[in-house]
Design goal:
mainly alpha, Arc Repressor Mutant, subunit A, three-stranded antiparallel β-sheet
Length: 143
Amino acid sequence: MLDIFLYGNVLWGMARAATTSDAFNAVAEPRRREILNFIALQERPVGEIVDSLGMEQPSVSKHLRVLLEVGLVNVRRDGRRMLYRTNAEAIRPLHEWTETFARYWRQQLSRVKERAERRSETSKDIETNFIPRRKDDFDGNKN
């Protein structure tokens, strides 16, 4: 038998971090980030999250449970309803971590902008020194 995946067996033994181990693993799931965004400014019941995001109720409940376990979501009972809201304080470490990269990209974009402006100034200088020529000026018989 020919094994075309020479290192495939290496990955079998690697354990994946549980989504409930920390906030970073929890927000790795795009639907959880979508839920966090939706409940960031206002607490909402599960049914409203389901309707607004077009997700199935069991899926929303599962994602909310994960977010609750890592502390990214707060829940409050209002009669029979459970109201969920993003826990902004728990998101602070995520924000601080991503801010490092935001600063990097702001620096990179500033450098690109400066370089483009320098090139633009250089091309303006070339344009002002440019003397247009007629087709006859390029005749091979003339020097």
